[in-house]
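User: Hey, my collaborator sent me this sequence without any context and asked if I could get a structure. I don't really work with proteins. Can you help?
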Amino acid sequence: MATLIQITQATKHYADQVLLDHADATIPDNVKIGFVGRNGAGKSTLLRCILGEEELDSGEIIRHPNLRLGYLRQHDPFLPGETTLEFLMRDSGRPAWRCGEVAGRFEIAGPYLDGPIQQLSGGWQTRAKLAALLLHEPNLLLLDEPTNFLDLRTQILLEHFLAGYDGGCLIVSHDRAFLGATCQHTLGLSRGKLATFPGKVDAYLQFVQDRRAHDERSNEAVMAKKRHLEEFIARNKARAATAKLAQSKSKALEKLEFTEVTGDEPTARFRAPNIEPRKGIALRCLELEIGYPGRSIAKEIRLELDHGSRAAIVGDNGQGKTTFLRTIVDSLKPISGEVRWGHGCNVGVYAQHVYTTLPEDLTVFDYLRKSATLGTKDQEVLDVAGSFLFKGSHVEKKIAVLSGGERARLCLAGLLLSKHNVLILDEPGNHLDVDTVDALIDALRDYKGTVIFTSHDRHFTGKVATCVIEVRDGRVTNYSGKYEAYLLKVNEEIEAGEREQATAKAKLPPRVSTPAKRDAAALREELALAERAVAELEERKRQLDEQYVTATDPRTLDRLYDDLTAIAAELGEAEDRWAKLQGEVEA
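Assistant: No problem. I've predicted the 3D structure and written it out in structure-token form, which is a compact way to encode the shape of the chain:
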């Protein structure tokens, strides 16, 4: 097994914060690794160093000459007006038939393939970027929070893609279900050190917990022995008869060593709002129609939700989950019908339209103090602030200078200090690391009120939800089953689609054949795309030729030679495609 990347004695600082402290790790080929650690630990920074976008302060990252990195970009690399197919062809330099074939693996077809890519939802655009990534045929994928804002169906499609992917992966994610389904190994980053573990993320987290407990017990035993020796020495060092023995014990005392407890960062412990449990109906929707002026999203919604429920709102992106939440909290008026809350419901909301409009003149502490129930002590407020990463001087920051992620965490912290007996939570796990998500799960499970939430994190949803409400095809309905059953249903739908796609592909000739007669305008359009692909490949080849002529480093020369060989093969394929289309147009 070849080593694609060797990290040796890597050190990286930001001001007085140590992200990497003489860290070592090896990333082999064909291995899928989940990369975990606290927020701010330095995971994304290490990825940028691997990509060459940042430099280490000291140490070395050695890359194999045949390394071909693929990186899922968070920005949108699209040109105005281009279709998904045009983007894939431009980005990869691959012919239309190959782009369509790979796009099909992510269910991108029909209007999703031939329509303007910038008009697609974020989830579909991410599918297109994943298809573009695959078209480059990397042997190591770097994925930084790939499941953020992806709906369940797209997450499962991505899992299936990674399961069949032959190369290696290094995946940063706080989604334990996703990591568990895709990665056989785990890389942990804590206090500047990298630790490689030959197992899945849940086993790694258990191992860390067990080792910490073992080290703490060991230190307690050492401390007890230390106290015993100190007492013995104090009693006997002044007596002539026992002075020599006391001196011997002093040497034994000097040899005692405590074990450094790894991974002992403070762990969040949230206290659920202490409210009086209620009975009966918490929420009732009567013939409700939701949407926007001139555009209905869902209608004929008849829904009842009991007090004490923890309802997960599920469905693909773009189906209307957020529209439904905004309607029931009255930040969006219904088109028709009625939303009724039960008597005595005190609703607290965590959603983007809330946390982006916080009072900017208040400090973090002032906002939390104002949100907390009467009688909450200042130390409790500070404890909650610290668990949401507002520590030290950060509690005196004005809301006006906080980032979007910081505002989101602040709003969630305020809710957990409140007396609301209904919580509406839109993606509460975003911006929180694995341990903090687990602490939030514990708090919501202890909560005696009603919770209505959306989440792309299956681990979080599976642990919290007691019922499931599905938003799909213009309907909002109670799903008759547990969340695990809903997951199974979606998986079965996707697998059926993949089987159907595989069957259809098996019936095709070895290459997608061109019908004897095709629309002349469509042919000319495809020919123009092929000409553009050839031109772009020629330009990339020219740039690589120039770099090859001026390069002196042997490793750089090897990489450029491999790139030139690959480009030449792609160019030959693109020119063949162009020649074939040109012949059809002339005919």
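In plain terms: The chain is about 45% helix and 20% strand. You can pass these tokens on to your collaborator as they are.
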